[in-house]
Amino acid sequence: MDEQVYPHLLAPLDLGFTQLRNRVLMGSMHTGLEESRGGLPKLAAFYAERARGGVGLIVTGGFSPNFRGRLHPLSAEFSSARTARAHRVITDAVHREGGKIALQLLHAGRYALHPFAVSASAIKSPISKFTPSEMTARQIQKTINDFAHSAELAREAGYDGVELMGSEGYLINQFICQRANHRYDEWGGSYENRMRFPLELVKAVRARVGRDFIIIFRLSMLDLVEQGSTHDEVVQLAQQLEQVGVTLLNTGIGWHEARIPTIATQVPRAAFAWVTAQVKASVSIPLITCNRINTPQVAEAILSAGQADMVSMARPFLSDAYFVQKASENRADDINTCIGCNQGCLDHVFVGQRATCLVNPQACYETELRLTPVATSRKLAVVGGGPAGMATAVAAAERGFAVTLFEKNAELGGQFNLAMQIPGKEEFKETIRYFTRRLEQTGVTVKLEQAADVALLTDFDDVVIATGVAPRMPPIEGIDHPKVVDYQTLIREKRELGMKVAIVGAGGIGVDVATMLTEPSEQRLEDWLKDWGIDQRVEYAGGLYPFESYISDRQVWLMQRKPGSVGKGPGKTTGWIHKKVLEKRGVELLGGVSYDRIDDQGLHITMEGQKRVLEVDHVVICAGQTSVDTLSAALRAKQINVHVIGGADVAGEVDAKRVIRQGVELAARL
C-alpha cells in the first residue's frame, strides 16, 4: 500500500478547531430518505458506510429552516428539537466510523413547488409553477433567525457543521442576483445591498453556533444565467463571507434554470475547476471545487495544480462508498466509477422516488438489498456478459455461489460496448472495467466466445439468461436495401456513412446515433465551453457569452412515428441537453412520420398528409429492440431452474439501470 499515491487528496486539512482526515467532501445529495417514513435509520446506514469508506467530510441533502422554504409541502424541515433528536441516529452512526458530517440548510425560495413560496421579489422562475410572494423586511429577518436556529439545532443533533446553500438558484442566490432581486430597499438595488442577506445570515449562524463549528457556504461562482454575478462580484462576496466567519467556501455552478449542462456525462471531467481557481487567489479560507470529478487521478490533479483545497464529489459516493479507501490503498481500478448518467439519482429524485445508482443498486438500499452469504454453495450459470449478466455474476459470487459466465462474443460489456463509443458516453467503459475486475476478484469463471447450449447448462443448479437484445427491424418496404444499416452493426463495425443520413427512431438510441454522426471529431475543454457560450473570464453577468455553435457538415434527419417533441431520449433530467445538442448541430427533428419505403432515391415519408422524399445516402434503423432468448423454454423442459433478466426478459428501451438492479436483486434472493 502506497500512502503517498495521492498525496494532495489524502492530506489532512486543518481547520483550526478541528481537522479533516483528507481533502474529500461528499457533496450534498437529496436521496428521498430524508422525508420518508423510517427513512432516517436508512439514511444513517447510507452515510455510515461512506464514513467507513474514508470520506473526509459528508454533507447531507438539503433541509429547510422553515415551512415556506421547503421544496415541496412534504419536504424535510429541520426546525425543532424533536427533529434534532431524531437525527442523532445519523450523526452517531457517522461518528462511530470516524467521519464528520454537516447538515445542509436549503431554502427553496422561488423554486418551491407550493403556493407559499417566497423570494426576494415576486418573480416567477421559468421552471416553477408558482409565483413567489415578495418577502417583507420582517419575513427576511425571521428567515435569517430560522437559519440560525436550525444551525443551533444541528449542533445539538451532533452535526459537525452546516452548509448554507447559497447557489444553484435557491433563495440566498436569488437575493444576490438582479435576475431574481428587483427590490429597492436595504435588501436590493446595489450589489452591496444584495449581498446583505447572505452576510447577515452567516453572522447570525456564527453567533448561535460558536467558533468551533464548521460553516460551509455554497457560493454560486458561475451562475450561467442572464443577470447573474460577474467574477468581481463573486470575489467581493467571497472575501466578505470569510470576514463574517465562514470556514469553507464550496463552489456552486449554474442555477437549476440554466440551460447549460453542468454535471451530465457529456460534461468533460473537472470542467469547472478553473472557476474555483479564479476565486482561490482572493481568499485565505479553504475552497472546495466540484462537478464531474469522478476518479482519484482527476481529483489529485486539481489539488496538485493548486486550483482548490478540497474536492467535492457527490454521485461518485453513490456508485462506490469506498472510493477514498480504495484510492488510499492504490486500488483506483477497483473503484466503481460514476458515469454521470443521472438515471438512478437525479432522475429519481425529480419524480419523488428514492435515489440510487445505475451502477450500484445497493446505494440508498444498504439495509434492504443485502448480499448475505449462502449456507451451501451452488453452481450458477449466467448466459450473457452484458451489464445484467456481469452484475448478476458478481453479486452471486459475492454471496458464495460457484459462478460460470458464458459470453458468445470475444469481449464482455454487451450494449455498453456500443454506448461507450457515443460522444459524451465514453464513461461507460469504466463500468465494463469495474465489473470485469470484480468478476476476476470474486472468482467467476468467464468463458468468452462460448455460446451456451442446453447440453452445456444441464449440470448447473440455476441458470440466468441475460442474453440481451437485437435491433428490431420495422416492416418498411425496402428495409433490406443496401442503404439500410441497423444501429448495432453501424457502431460495432464502424460503418462509414454518407453526408446525408436518415435515422428511423428517436428514442435513446436514435438520439445517441444522431449525436455520434454530428459531433466534432475532437473537442477540448475550451471548445466545449465555447460551444455552450461559457465566458471563462466571467466578465459578462452570469458568465455567459453567445459563442457561435458548431454546425455539422453532415445532414441528419432524426424521426419518430409519434407526434410531438423529438430528440430528448429517455433521461428525465438530461433530455433537454440531448435535444439542444442536436439542434446546435443542425439535426432536423421530425415527429409524426410515416415511413413509406426505402429505395435508390432515399427514404420516402409522409408527414401531416404530405409526401416527402429524403434523398439520403444511408438510413439507420433505431426502432427499438427485440429480446434474445433461445434457451429458457428448453431448459425449463429439462426441469432446470431458469431466471430470465435484462433485455432477454423485457426489450423495451435499453435501460441499464433496470437490468443491473434486476440482476443484483435476483442474486440477492437466490
Automatic annotation (TrEMBL):
Residues spanning the membrane: none
Residues in FAD/NAD(P)-binding domain copies: 379-636
Cited PANTHER family: 2,4-DIENOYL-COA REDUCTASE, 2,4-DIENOYL-COA REDUCTASE [(2E)-ENOYL-COA-PRODUCING]
Record GO biological process: fatty acid beta-oxidation, unsaturated, even number, reductase/isomerase pathway
Gene that this sequence comes from: fadH
Family of this protein: In the N-terminal section; belongs to the NADH:flavin oxidoreductase/NADH oxidase family.
EC number: 1.3.1.34
InterPro entries recorded: Aldolase_TIM, FAD/NAD-bd_sf, FAD/NAD-binding_dom, NADH:flavin_oxidoreductase, OxRdtase_FMN_N
Domain NADH:flavin oxidoreductase/NADH oxidase N-terminal per the UniProt entry, residue ranges: 9-333
Uppermost EC category: oxidoreductase
Record has Metal-binding as a keyword: yes
UniProt keyword annotation of Metal-binding present: yes
SUPFAM superfamilies cross-referenced by the UniProt entry: FAD/NAD(P)-binding domain, FMN-linked oxidoreductases, Nucleotide-binding domain
Gene3D superfamilies per the UniProt record, alphabetical: Aldolase class I, FAD/NAD(P)-binding domain, NAD(P)-binding Rossmann-like Domain
Keywords attached to this entry: Flavoprotein, FMN, Iron, Iron-sulfur, Metal-binding, Oxidoreductase
GO molecular function ontology, one term from the record: metal ion binding
Protein name per UniProt: 2,4-dienoyl-CoA reductase
UniProt source species: Photobacterium aphoticum
Cofactors: FMN; [4Fe-4S] cluster
Coiled coil: none
